[in-house]
Design brief:
globular, six-stranded parallel β-sheet, alpha/beta, single chain, 16% strand
Length: 160
């Protein structure tokens, strides 16, 4: 069992949407490899989120970000252009507010969303400015960061 700080657990329990900047899937996850610390596989994350009632949605601000890994893991995605805050709100169409979102960010342009989200995380390779704004900085990058954050949510919302 993973033990989380109480304040992190409380924030994670109210999350309804896991919003991911798809740029994390193009990061080299081997650069920050600290071994496997989770007993659950990356492929299990989407299934876990579905079982907890959390929607997983990826976004990208340009078409150069590869989405093949996101698709492989069953993550739907949207394209966001222009002002991210306004664009995201229109794409979410009133179904979610920023108070429902856990953001996994990867770029400086995610800082605004990180500040507004219920909980924000950044990867090990994220820019320093985003790390400073985030509630949590992953020890990993790429798909491993997605797995780590998924496991944090699963443990916080679990029946422990």
């Amino acid at each position: 069992m993973l033990v989380l700080r109480t304040d992190i657990t409380q924030k994670l329990r109210s999350v309804r949407l896991l919003l991911i900047n798809l740029k994390i899937f193009s990061e080299n996850s081997d650069e920050f490899d600290y071994g496997q610390i989770w007993g659950r596989d990356t492929d299990q994350v989407k299934h876990d989120m579905d079982s907890l009632g959390i929607e997983v949605l990826g976004y990208r601000s340009n078409t150069k970000v590869p989405v093949s890994s996101a698709r492989k893991h069953g993550i739907n995605h949207i394209i966001v252009k222009g002002d991210k805050k306004k664009e995201l709100l229109s794409k979410l169409a009133g179904k979610y507010s920023f108070k429902d979102i856990l953001l996994i960010g990867a770029e400086d342009t995610d800082i605004e969303i990180a500040a507004l989200s219920k909980f924000s995380a950044s990867t090990a390779t994220s820019p320093l400015e985003l790390k400073m704004e985030s509630d949590y900085v992953s020890n990993f990058s790429g798909i491993n960061a997605y797995q780590e954050i998924g496991n944090l949510i699963f443990n916080a919302k679990g029946s422990y």
